[in-house]
Every structure is written in C-alpha cells, then in structure tokens.
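Practice set, problem 2.
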Amino acid sequence: MDTANVTCGNASTILIPQRVREKDDDHTLRILLYSLIFFLSVFGNLLIIVVLTVNKRMRTVTNTFLLSLAVSDLMMAVFCMPFTLIPSILKDFIFGAAMCKIVSYLMGVSVSISTFSLVAIAIERYSAICNPLKSRVWQTRSHAYRVIAATWVLAFTIMIPYPIISHLEAFQWPDNTTAHQCRHKWPLATAEQTWYVLLLLVLFAIPGVVMIVAYGLISRELYRGIQFEMGHKKDSTDVKNGLTSTVSSGSDDGDGCYVNVVQGPHSMEMSTMATSGRALKAERPRSNTSEAKLEAKKRVIRMLVVIVVLFFLCWMPLYCANTWRAFDDISAKRALSGAPIAFIHLLCYTSACVNPIIYCFMNTRFRKALLATFSCCVAPCHRHCHCGLRDNEEDVMATGASMSKFSYTTVSTMGTC
C-alpha cells in the first residue's frame, strides 16, 4: 500500500503503510506538543500584527518586514499544523480533494514567505549597521513594501506545482475500511528529485548562507565597536587619573583649557579643583552609558548567533528528509515513519513561535508598545484616550532604524521592532 503524503513546508508526512494503532500516550503527547506550539504561534504573531498595525509610527523599515514575517508565520501555524496533525493521528485525510490542493499550496507559500522575510531582515540590518549612510538613501518604507510584495509574488509563483501535483486518493486498509491520502504525483522521478534539490537550495542553503554572512559581518562590526568602547573607556580612565594628579600636585600638566581664564595662583587652584570635580561627576554617568553600550552590543552578537542556530536547527532536518525521500524513498519511509517525521515537523513549526520571541518580545520597546496598545482594553477609555504609544515614544521608535552603526544597537538590541 502506498503511503499518504501531506506537505507542510514542502515536506511529506510519511504514514505507516499498514494500519498500526499507536499508543494513546503517543497521541496524547503529540497533541499536547502541537497544541502548545500552535497556541504560542497564533497568539504571538497576532499580538505582533495588532501592535504594529495600531501603532502607525512604529512602521519602520524593519518593522515592515517583521509584520510580513508575522503574517507568514501565522499562515504557517494555521495551514500547516492542523492539516499535519489530524491526518497523522487519524491515518486519513478527511478534508476533501479541494483542501488537499489548497492546503498544500498555502503550506509551501507560508514557509517561503517566512524564509524570504528572514533573509530580508538580515540584509536590512546589515545595511543599517554596517553601511548606515548609504542605507539611509534607499531604506525607506516604500522600498520595503516593494521588497515584501516581490517576496509574496515570488512565493506564490514558485509554489504553483503543489496544487498541480497534489491529489486525493482513496485506499483500503487490511480491515476493509476506506481512507484517503493527499499525495504528490510526480510525472517523473527526476522531476521530484530536481524539485526537492531546488527547494533545498532556494529555501534553506542560500538563505542560510546569506544570514550567516550578514549576521557575521554585523557581529564583526559590533565587535569593533566593543573594542572602540573599551579603548575609549581606558582613555577616559587615564584622563580621570590625570585630572586627579593635577589636583593633588597643583601643576598645570593638563590640557590647559581652564588655566587661561584664571588669574592668580589661588584662583587657578580653585578653578582646577572645580573643573576636575565636574569632570569626575560627568564621568560616572558616562561610564554607566559606556557599560550599557558594551552590554547591548554583546547581547546583539549573542542574539544573532541564536537566530542563525535556530534557523538551521528548525529547518535542516526537514529539508534533509525531503531530499533523502526524493532519492531513496524506501529507506526514508522505513527510517522516518511515525514519531521521527512528526518530531521533524514539530521542529519546523517551532520557528513560527520562536520568531516573535526573538524579533519582538525580547525587545524592551516592543513590550512598552504592547502594554500601551492594550492599556485601553484594561482600563475604561476616557474621552481623549489614545491607544498606543505617546507621540514622543513613537518618534523614538520610528527613528530607531536611522541610527549610526554604534548607536543603532543601543536604541534596540534586537532590531527596530
């Protein structure tokens, strides 16, 4: 008996050829995990969509790409998870022939848009941090809209084969019961192999390399900023020590900026002490600011590493399984049927719930915008209640993407969400 296929993210759910009744504990665990990931994905991405839509001044260039990413991740959760879990549990695709084609198509489209959005965010961040002056010329919201439109059109175009090759077929189990399977019927085996290799390159290998290069260059730039801050901190310490020695020795070995305006030895000493005291007081907040900048840059570097690692962790098993199945179907079925392929699918679905956490919810300014957006829902609205950020807060967020390469990361440690 041929296996049933349900595509999600361009992968095939490999069902067991015989009607094997799995343990109820396995079903319960799988349902719980899928339900948890589904709830987190839908709830998290809906919050991002609402916040970025209500707070119009938060619609920066990066936020525009994040909005597209949230929509695609929401599509992935809605069109992938239920249509993968239910047929896997029932061993029967119960949604009909039309949904077989529609779901297969939207599954591929949602994954493509999500991947293209991640690549666009990586390139935008690289330009904003590593080439801030040049990027300000072309990094506009209108340009972001055009890029997003192109990614959506490209995703809908390259996934056209899925509704063509997806077919609903009926088959008989050994106990004479009838079930259905949503299968991919390729005209040639070489066509299937070419397709999955193409997807491996377009939706995994090339985006992964682009993200590694972009975030690697960003990390190098931030590391240089850390070295600059450390050197500046050392110079400030030396200057502070020099001022202290000037006060204690009474000599004028300093920079002489405050000596020329003083008349007489006594007034010179008092002026020197007063100026050095002001410098020492100013040094404390300046030192705190420098430490904050260093920690912000270090957090950004760690977060960029996490983004790349999670991308490969979530998607590498899926595309490897696809390619393996295309070239050696029998051994792939034997090795991946049941729990392994369900776990692989769950990994790729996890990206739909971790993306909101990484790109937005770990951002302090996004959390403030979230609280401001829903504040009117908690408290009764007054006559002039303004849901969202105050004007000055929104202005800070709206201009966050145009910062220089060093101050950019102090405004937002995770982007401009």
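Problem 2, part (b): a different protein.
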Amino acid sequence: MADLTSALNEDNRADLVSALKSKIQSLAGQHSDVLENLSPNVRKRVEVLREIQNDCEEVQDEDDDYDDEEEHEPATLGFVEKPKNQWSLCRQYFPSKAGGVPAWLDPVNIPLGRTSVCDICEEPLQFLLQVYAPIEKETTFHRMLFVFMCPSMKCLLRDQHEQWKRHPEKPSRSVKVFRCQLPRDNPFYSRECPQYNESHPPVGSGAVLCDWCGTWKGDKICSGCRQARYCSEKHQVVSWSSGHKITCQKMKVSSYVPRPNNNGTASLESHKVESNNLWPEFEIIIEDESEYNGDMSEDNTSANSLISRNRTDETMNSLLDSFKGDDDKRSWANFQERIAKAPDQVLRYYRNSNAKPIWPISSGRPSQADIPKCNYCSGPMCCEFQILPQLLYYFGVENEVNSLDWASIVVYACEASCEATLPYKHEFAWVQLYSPSTTL
C-alpha cells in the first residue's frame, strides 16, 4: 500500500490512477478466474477501487478537455445579414440561414409527430437556424443540420436541467437538432451546381406545410373550408382565433385551392405564413476567424459592429458582476477576448478543425462522458458548431426577466455522419445557461 499512500499524500491524480491500476492488478490479476477465487471482502474492495479509478479517469478526461479549449485555434465564423435576393434562401440553393422557415433539404420526408414538438410543453418547435455542411464522400454530397427550439425560457431551463441526466432513455428536450444528407444523385436536386438566379427551380415539389408556421407538415385539414392545413391542433386553434374564422367562410365559396410549389409550400404569390411570431429571416455568411486582426482598434470594431457597444458593455458588466467564482470570470474574460475580434458573429463552426468551443462560463460545461454516442451507429459524436447568444439580438428578443436567453448552444453530430433509414436523424445539443438550474 506504500505506493497508493504516497500518491494520495502528493494529491497527484495521474499517480493515483496509476497506483489504483497497479493495486487492482495485484489483487485481481489479469484473469477473471483469479477474481472469482478471492474472498467476498477482497472482491468488494476491488470493485470500490475500480469505481474510484473510473471516476478519476473521467475527471482527468474532463480536465484535458478544458485544457484543449484554451488553445486558440481559429474557427469558421457565421454572421447574419438580410438576403439581397429572397430567392437565394430557397432550398435549391442550399442556404445556411437563421429565422423564418426552414429550407428543408429533403422536402418530402419531414420529421413528424413528437419529434417536431417540445418535449416539455408539447408546442410545435420553432425554427432557429440551419447550416449547410457537406462532407467529401458520396453519401454526404449534400448535408444540412437544422436546429429547432421552443421559444419559452421556462422550457429551456427545464431542458438544461434534464440534460444532466446522463443519457436517459427518453430525453425531454426543448432544443432539437436534425441531420439530413443526400448523395449527388437524388430525387430532389440536379447533379449540376445551381445557377444563382431566380429561374433555377428545384427538381419536383415538396410536402404541403402548415399554413400557420410554414415549418412542419400540414397533415390536418380545416373541416370548414377543406383548404387550410395545419401541423397540429394547437396551430389550428390559434389560426382560427387569429382570423381564419372569418376567412374560412370566404374560402368555402372561393374556387381558389392552394397547391404545393417547388419550395414545398403553397404559392408565395397567393399564400403566406400566417404567424407573426416567427423569428426574422437572415442569411448566414461564413468567414474565417483567422482573417480578423486581433489588434483591430476599438473604433473600427465599434464602427463595424451592428450591436451597440454601450449595450454590449452594460450586458457584459452585469453578467460579470453575477459571477461569484474565479473560474467563471476567467472563462468570461477568455470568451470576451475571442468574441471581441468579431463581435457580430452568431455561429462558430468547428468540424474538420482543431478548434474547440469557447465557453462563456466554466460551470455547466459538459465532460466527454456527457456527450452521448450516435443513436444510429453507436459511434462517437464530434462538435459541429456553436450558437452564440448574439443571435437573439438580431431576432429582436428583449432583455427581460423571462425572455429567451442562453450562454451557448453547442451542437454535436455523428463523427462518421453515418447512414440510417431516417431521412432526418437526431443529433445532440448541449445547452449552457448563464445561471445553471439545479432544481425546478
């Protein structure tokens, strides 16, 4: 026991793990039959030592992850801007976009049922953003990741609480991520690169979508006019109270019947999404972080920023005052230093690079063990991209007590981008809030 006692006195994790391994091997040997021949008390001690060893290795892995995050590898940055041409956000141009309605990559086999609703309040999820991220192999010639979330902060708080239940059988999430990928030869798009003009149509049409949200399949038909379509009873009810009660009578006697167009919705000339609660629509523009000079003057940074510097400083100082521990303050300082180079960024893309997420605060960060395996191939998941809270500013979300807010949303996707029977495969999002909830 001398080696184990020495390691404990020195408080050295690496030596402790090594000593534990040595002790376990000396007790149990390399074969299971040796363990079976030990007395019950000794076997119990071996199992306890193994549990301690696993805990120490997990903590060591977690510390290694945090050390890696201090490496300032450049990432690919995403910025939002209003599209110059509305047609450029149609699905045939494979857009990266935020807000509005999704441009479904597979416009026919859209997620249905409970996959399309918040698991907490059961309201249909709202489209947050999508990122076009093809991989150089045949099955992922086109590849898109979609992020949806419930706009309720109460649900997000519950979501953040639920994710700490490591790998539950039925997770309750208010943030959901879907991955869709297609080979070059597919039923929906030409093999050739699209010509970026308004006259370039997609191949075929998509599913008819909900008249209220324009996001999910409109499988429910209004029993009155037999024309309006909805993704859920909840959207049918809110549409009725918001004006369809009147227009329904007119549609009954009208010869107009909406038909799906190539975007998978009813004709834009005669039909628009009814909801006014969708987040405003932006195109996501991609730039390399290494192009931004870290010595950029404060005047230039302020001039190029769409976010008011005064508002930013007030928000940051308020948050800093709420951080009690030094670790949170160090994380916040590091986060601020990185973001200050390009304060308008709303997204950081990491796949195929050595860059790591930058966490605004140290508490609420996942360890390696908190990230689940792929639901379909059981392989490892890698960090795909990070969504920053700056996006809420562009969405016009007010800074109020119950307003939607987050510190970071980090999306993890199957490292192999595996194939599966589902057209839209579930991926994983880790939600970090400024004030992590412990009980609800």
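Answer key, part (b): Residues 1-10, 63-70, 261-271, 296-311 have pLDDT under 50 and may be disordered. The chain has two domains: 2-63, 70-82+112-190+279-432.
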